[in-house]
UniProtKB/TrEMBL annotation:
Function of the molecule: Is required not only for elongation of protein synthesis but also for the initiation of all mRNA translation through initiator tRNA(fMet) aminoacylation.
Designated name of the protein: Methionine--tRNA ligase
Biological classification of the source: Bacteria, Pseudomonadati, Pseudomonadota, Alphaproteobacteria, Acetobacterales
E.C. no: 6.1.1.10
Protein's gene: metG
Motif ('HIGH' region): 11-21
Length: 506
């Protein structure tokens, strides 16, 4: 069995989870579920990023000790994973002993290879981004200074260890050219390449002005820069530094899913750290876009943060999962609007998919004695329908492989529309009297169509599709992609159908 390793960013515990966190993890979850459905052995990792100045400050503001604070907020992210139905195999916290050990081992390896030296940092730092900025990147407004991200910056002057990032620039450019799929989408790849072509500075990788971090081995005055600490989580969970560990077979990761704001850390620093330490870089970094809320930037100060838990309470889990990946091309920015959500749920889930299932299964109940009819002979329109269905799993596989989730859903929906066209044209309800043999054939084909849709939609809507497969009489061992090649036996009894999606009032 071939292995696949997918990761989400680890989330800062300075705040409660919001729609952006749910979104990155959802995409990763669908990817992981699809790979399992295809027969791969999958490791899906998520977790929380608990060190650094930003988290330390949030703990101070809450009047709490940082460990107690991170214990509390980290739990919200585990709860979110349960609410959203994420199928992660591990949940890493950077305050765990296994992670401290991995960070320190990586540091020592970099020291051994002369990739780290002690120096002095003087420059701008944005706590909100946990990032250093060059003087040319800083903007001044009303006497205050800001990073290009809008985060306020402060002047930092302290002793610091540096990673020799500058020397890795040419190697990185070669690496991007030899691995054209390493950064996706292409717009992000270009952005990263322009940045690296502009020349890289050595990177400050330790801080001395606060203590909430992993201590630098042999120099306790320093804690590691939070991004070096955070990125290392991806190898900690795979067993590093024990490269004989059972889990190490999953490295290198197949896809690191990230938001567009953190692509530089993943596509520049991370492969450079790994290569410098003699480890293999990940295969791909996919950067998705950002959500706005009804046309507005999402921010705490505007009070328009979208709480994924409330959304699920209101509309149900699977409709929310479907909408988030259906509405916006993965990689683009997108707008969250209730009208769009309701439009998709009613039009695509309830009217197109739900209706098709309900009509087909009710007719089988009523007219075929509740058992799967036999498909004897062929009629007009059958071939087109069956050809579209036969190629669907492979097309979806290609699209999900490129993280084009919206196109995968569009392809499935197009076949569901075709199946609705087929049922209208064939009118099996009218065939009962005129041609019952043909009626059975039509219903059998529609059943096959529904089985394909339910199978390929499992990663997107696991609960509802399990219910649909139950109604279709598909046994648990018949739900993988490979099982589609094995038709259910004629005469399989089907349980009474029940509606799968409910319409929502606008
Ligand atoms: N801790 C770092 C990641 C370290 S990974 C080694 C971090 N954490 S975060 O909690 O701030 O952000 C996590 C993810 O949420 C990012 O991928 C970010 O892009 C995403 N989002 C935050 N707001 C978002 C939207 N409004 N829309 C979509 N995603 C957004 O960065």
């Amino acid at each position: 069995m071939s292995t696949k390793y997918f990761t989400t960013p680890i989330y800062y515990v300075n705040d409660r989870p919001h729609i952006g966190h749910a979104y990155t993890s959802l995409a990763t979850d669908v990817m992981a579920r699809w790979a399992r459905l295809s027969g791969h052995e999958v490791f899906f990792l998520t977790g929380t990023d608990e060190h650094g100045q930003k988290v330390e400050k949030a703990a101070q503001d809450a009047g709490m000790d940082p460990q107690a604070f991170t214990d509390r907020v980290s739990q919200h992210f585990r709860d979110l994973a349960a609410t959203m139905g994420f199928s992660n195999d591990d949940f890493i916290r950077t305050t765990e002993p296994r992670h401290k050990a991995a960070c320190q081992a990586l540091w020592e390896e970099l020291v051994r290879r002369d990739e780290i030296y002690l120096g002095h940092y003087e420059g701008w730092y944005a706590v909100r981004d946990e990032a250093f900025y060059g003087p040319d990147e800083i903007e001044e407004r009303d006497g205050k200074r800001f990073a290009p991200t809008g985060a306020p910056v402060e002047w930092v002057r302290e002793p610091s260890y540096f990673f020799r990032l500058s020397k890795w620039g040419p190697w990185l450019l070669d690496f991007y050219r030899e691995n054209p799929d390493f950064i996706a989408p292409a717009s992000r790849r270009n952005e990263v390449m322009r940045f690296v072509e502009g020349g890289l500075q050595d990177l400050s990788i330790s801080r001395t002005s606060f203590t909430w971090g992993v201590p630098v081995p042999g120099d306790a005055a320093h804690v590691m820069y939070v991004w070096l600490d955070a990125l290392t989580n991806y190898i900690t969970a795979a067993g590093y530094p024990d490269t004989a560990a059972e889990r190490w077979r999953f490295w290198p990761a197949d896809v690191h899913f990230v938001g567009k704001d953190i692509v530089r850390f993943h596509a520049i620093y991370w492969p450079a750290f790994l290569q410098a330490a003699g480890l293999t870089p990940p295969r791909r970094v996919f950067a998705h876009g950002w959500w706005t809320n009804e046309g507005q930037k999402i921010s705490k100060s505007l009070g328009n943060v979208i709480d994924p838990v409330r959304l699920v309470e209101e509309y149900g889990l699977d409709p929310v999962r479907y909408f988030l990946l259906r509405e916006v091309p993965f990689g683009n920015d997108g707008d969250f609007s209730r009208a769009a959500l309701i439009g998709r749920l009613n039009g695509e889930l309830a009217d197109t998919l739900g209706n098709l299932a309900n009509r087909t299964l009710s007719l089988i109940q009523r007219n075929c004695g509740g058992v799967l009819p036999e498909a004897a002979g062929a009629g007009p329109g059958d071939e087109e329908l069956l050809a579209g269905l036969a190629s669907l799993p492979e097309r979806v596989d290609g699209l999900i492989g490129r993280q084009e989730f919206h196109l995968a859903l569009e392809a499935i929906l197009a076949e569901a529309r075709a199946a609705n066209g087929y049922i209208t044209l064939q009118a099996p309800w009218a065939l009962k009297k005129t041609d019952p043999v043909r009626m059975a054939v039509v219903l059998r084909h529609l059943h096959s169509a529904l089985r394909v849709f339910a199978t390929v939609l499992q990663p997107f809507m696991p609960g509802t599709m399990a219910a649909m497969l139950d109604q279709l009489g598909v046994p648990a061992e018949g739900r993988g992609l490979d099982a589609l090649a094995r038709p259910l036996p004629d005469g399989t009894p089907l349980p009474a159908p029940a509606p799968l999606f409910r319409k929502v009032e606008a």
